[in-house]
Amino acid sequence: MTVQTWLRQARRSLLATGATAVLTVALLVGTEATSQAASQAPCDLYASGGTPCVAAHSTTRALYGAYNGALYQVRRASDSATKDIGLLSAGGYADAAAQDTFCAGTTCVITVIYDQSGRGNKLTQAPAGGAAPGPDNLAPATAAPVTVAGHRAYGVYVAAGTGYRNNKTNGTATGDQPEGMYAVLDGTHFGGGCCFDYGNAETNNLDTGNGHMEAIYFGDSTIWGSGTGKGPWVMADLENGLFSGPDAGYNANDPSVSHRFLTAIVKGAPNLWAIKAGNAQSGGLSTYYNGARPNVPGYNPMHKEGAIILGIGGDNSKSSSGTFYEGVMTSGYPTDATENAVQANITAANYQAPVLTSTALTPGARVSLKATTAPCCDTHYLRHQADGTVTISPITSTSTSSDKKDATWIVRAGLANSSCLSFESAAAPGQYLRHAAFQLHTAAPNATTLFDQDATFCLQAGHSGQGYSFQSVNYPNRFLRHYAYTGYLAGDGVGGNTWDSDALWSEDTSWLTAQPWS
Questions:
Q1: Can 315 be counted among the known catalytic residues?
Q2: Exposed end of the chain (fewer CB within 10 Å): N or C?
Q3: Cα–Cα distance between 420 and 235 in angstroms, integer?
Q4: pLDDT grade, residue 29 (50/70/90)?
Q5: How far apart, in whole angstroms, are the C-alpha atoms of residue 407 and residue 395?
Q6: In this structure, how many other beta carbons lie within 10 angstroms of the beta carbon of residue 360?
Q7: Among 237, 254, 315, 454, which one carries the catalytic annotation?
Q8: Is 136 one of the annotated active-site residues of the chain?
């Protein structure tokens, strides 16, 4: 038997067990098979499995091997001009440099996420709905930087109040028609409100009843359903319920997940649906539920309406948060083999969190941190008071020497994590910025793990598209924030404290590095 004959026979037999096996063989038999596998993208795999994509959204890469159009559009603040951001090459990765050049010296928001399927199912700013007024906010274009296959790209950073929608779609499932969907998300960015969703929703922005939605939900809400641990969980928003399993309530097979990059899957057919998830950087998928529809009126049969949402619930509920990189919706109920092949393609894309650096934030440097919220506070700086409380106040060249010192910090390697940062007071050496009961103070280290963690913050891109945001190392869903001119550690609409308000959260948690006042 020749090698070519063996490969043809092996390929026929392996196709019966799924494309993942084919990809494995490709690594074993040489560069030709590897090249063929590399030309495939998620929507090519879905089409091969008989469940083609009817919507394909991504700000990071092409979801078809031959796609060479725009991924998304940005609008800059300086003159309201817009620009489509495309690919470096057909089937490739986002041209992030084009965005960087266009948005240089100003900020940009993402106005359109184009549909790569050819059906015109693009996502734009969500309008008002039954649960909340609108139009919703648009995502800052630079708040979710990543690398994909070594190429810089940007995701869609959804703070509470942000949302995208398309109510006039083409080809998405309606009624009880079968469909599948996946999304690649940031598994460390989530909220407990309703609802960070991607998928099928009502066409009138209202809650029209049980079974009128079928969308991926990610977060730690426990209002309707939950899984094991404290969350977050991948669940399904089927309207009037976030389902982790067969009925509203607890599903012991739906675990808390914390992958930095997360693959989340929901699919549904007549009296059948499933939840799956996995690490989008390595490994396979796990099935968290696979079985009959909820035994509650309205869910069997389903009454899907076919709109597409991102970051919100079907009635424009917009009190949660998350980050989206790519996702699709299909016609038909995908096989496990197809989804395994898609997961292999996602992990091969090599999503990575970028290492953010700033010369102003090098350990040993002195820095002042300027608030960005306008018009109230963009002349204000983070500073401490004599009693150790931390506030913001205006600092100018005419300010007292004492005020200038109080608004100056010495950057240190993170006490709890040397890849993050701690801030020592320049005015009171040995005193560090820390949170206690979620309020910011300055205090001397006490040789405890808790203090070190409370005083350590990890650098992220500014949530508003400006400067930097500082993430707590022990409360990763909370960030340095000013609220009512006082410094806090705050969540995005979650936590139950007044300073966790989602109003201006992105702006209040974004800081500019400035020349030290002292």
A1: yes
A2: N
A3: 32
A4: very low
A5: 8
A6: 17
A7: 315
A8: no
